[in-house]
């Protein structure tokens, strides 16, 4: 069987590893628009325009080249349990079941383990502990050694532009641009793993989606509390810990009106040295001023080094830290559609309409009240930073979901006869987690049982 994987990013790399585990003699052709230098939207030359509101998911959250966004991400691998949603639909119920069944096996592929229990800390909140990938191994393409697999033929600098299909169910070929020349190749099976927005663009351009818009949503995030004196709230310590070069973090998750929210700690916001460490570790970005940041604040730098190297936990500057509340944006009106504008490749870009749902203020208020209740019950020393939540100023984070509305896993696996689309956009809900890893057990189920 000849298999095409369209995109060498996070999901594309995971798919290839799972394919080779099942079929050691697989023939895989991997298409990627970039190469080993990972680029953002502007650098690669893609086009998106923002209509209404501010959403940086495309300009700041998309990365192109080997490893895709996993080259720049946090690398926190989280999955769902029954605690995550009060009323999950059938698709999400099945994702939860697969997550529970295969979480350990999936995490073992990254040599990590997460056996921390989820604790109900109040009637409305439970905790979820996250284990991050090692700071030194975040890029899935290199972690799975895709460049060294003899089964994989890598076509770099090949921009997939559309898929050919006469009946809308069977994919007959992939049309791509190589050095400005349009080419086509045919395969038995296709994995569309070009990232949420570009995969959606390809489906729209190929008329494989019957509508001309693809709706989506994402999380909204806002700094809400300053916490003083202790990192412990009730019986839970929220300070990040280190296990090897991996971080262990904790959050509290709840839900109001079918919208999930999560309350998560952020440390050292006013500590320039810590900001420099994050820039270097996550963005592989170095500036000489980072060295100067060491000398600007020697006592805190020494405290940081002691905490990380000896105590194996996050340093908390001035014993003060922040709680952010992130919610699922309850928007019904955010969508992407093909733009009239063309990108550097001469291909139609995307117009993005992103609205913050009118119920968002109410959800934030209710989530904040739940958090205040809990902080009070635990006698935490906190300061409310903003009485009124202005959701227009929320930072956004890059977990697009709700693009395809699959009813159940069977429909997801069979929407196309010889193609599986893999992106967080396939999830109906994102819940209170960074959801990338929640789909990995689903990919394995497909490859092991259906392919
Ligand atoms: C700063 C940041 C931090 C994050 N932290 C976390 C986290 O801690 N935990 C978490 O779960 N999620 C996190 N995320 C989200 C996570 O990065 C994404 O959900 C995930 O990487 C999506 O994987 P993907 O395979 O869909 O896309 P990508 O990894 O972006 O891969 C897409 C690939 O397709 C290629 N491609 C694109 N278009 C084409 C085309 N037309 N033709 C050929 N190739 C193409 C690209 O070059 C790229 O390699 C974070 C995101 C960001 C931006």
From TrEMBL:
This is Uncharacterized protein. It comes from the Bacteria. The lineage of its organism: Bacteria, Pseudomonadati, Bacteroidota, Bacteroidia, Bacteroidales. SUPFAM superfamilies: FAD/NAD(P)-binding domain. InterPro entries: FAD/NAD-bd_sf.
